[in-house]
Fold:
Amino acid sequence: MLLIYPPVAKPTEPPPGIALLAGALQGQNCPVEIIDANIEGLEYLINKPALQDDTWTKRAKKNACAHLNSLRDNRTYLNPARYQRCIADLNRALNQTTERATISVSNYVDGEFSSVSSHDLLAAAAAPEKNPFYDYFSPRLQQALSSSRHEHIGFSLNYLSQAVVTFAMIGHVRRIAPQITIVLGGGLITSWMRHPNWSNPFAALVDRCIDGPGERALLNHCGIAVNHSTALADYSQLPLERYWSPSLILPYAASRGCYWNRCSFCPERAEQNRYTSAGANQNLDELHQLCQRWQPGLVHLLDNAISPALLDGLIQRPLGVNWYGFARVNERLTDLDYCRALKKAGCVLLKLGIESGDDQVLAQMEKGVTSALTEKVLTTLKQAGLATYVYLLFGTPGETPQAAEHTLTFIRRNHAAVTFLNLAIFNLPTNSSDAQQLALRPFYQGDLSLYSDFEHPYGWNRGDVRRFLEKTFKKDPAIAAILRRDPPQMTSNHAPFFVEGC
Structure:
């Protein structure tokens, strides 16, 4: 089995999905090879000659190798201006290698093929030579397939930014090795397959699409009958020294779904993703084993919300390694001693989906919290010395312009306790309960679009929201200061390295 993680995704840490699949396959004595085509492909394009020879492009290409080394150096994160220059130059080096796509260190937008159109994705597969990564993946796939007797090849498709390149690679595999079985899985495929209108448009190209966790499905596909897999992720075939971070970030998912699972706006709820976890004790056993084996400098907990039981367990059985991840706002985070215990146990940053500073909006979202509780949590985390990465969501069906102003006031009032800030405009999942009650209109043109635009009940439409954010919210001096701290492109993936003590 050959497993591939395609471009483009943030290359800050090894991909956890294919590492977990590799561990499961090898645990059943099934030979497996892994290719992180994302890190390889991005670095290939960065070093490829540019289409233009203007001063900025020449400088970016000349310094590309030094910039990559800088992102692997802790000292760079002490100098935000230097960090920003590295990212800007790397983006320039990538984007000046092609005229047919917009490429950055975290995104890919094709100029011809849409990521949410099955027709376009099939067209990308039919013409792989058009893809900007073709000069990389053509010889790379040829080498991998000729050096081993692979019977199956699996692609891990998680983000829209990977879709067009993934299908171009699949199309090339079909040309050079038509006998190989192609399996397609990952987060984006799961979301597509769980949409009520799904009717597999890729049946003639892909032999099997996998919905949800892939370990058991992939083993069964290879003829190995198992009911469940408890194997640890295996990162041994991944280029751990090449990821764009100052130390190895170990990604780990202790659960799937969300233990709250009530937020009305959430895709997890719309897709009816059931919450599952092996339990805090097993999670901690696995984390300790993984940390001992791979010696990371930072652990990234991938859960939609780290469970209270796991947070308690991390306090009781510290990893000896710094860690960060998403947590739900809750009463326990108002306990100063508890938050100090989290910090002592290695927590450097908590990501918080606050969404709004207006209580009516929070109630309509079914967040299960109030703005007063959130304010107390922010204050306590600040007192405990923990950094926060706060996520806000504007333009939800229950929000009015006045409610958005309340959120502005809330963040301004608590600006000292907000380390980083992410602003998003609400995208309505097409299969959510809210979608049944709103007048819908197209958002992305394509049969694979997971979201829809809508006529806002209060006339607070996307254009109005965007103008408010650009002309009012971001212009507030206290908020602007927070936004300037956000690591460009890499955002929360690099944010912990800007926190003292990480």
Observations:
- The first strand starts at residue 2 and ends at 5.
- Residues 55-71 form the longest helix (17 residues).
- The two ends are 37 Å apart (CA to CA).
- The chain has a mean pLDDT of 93.
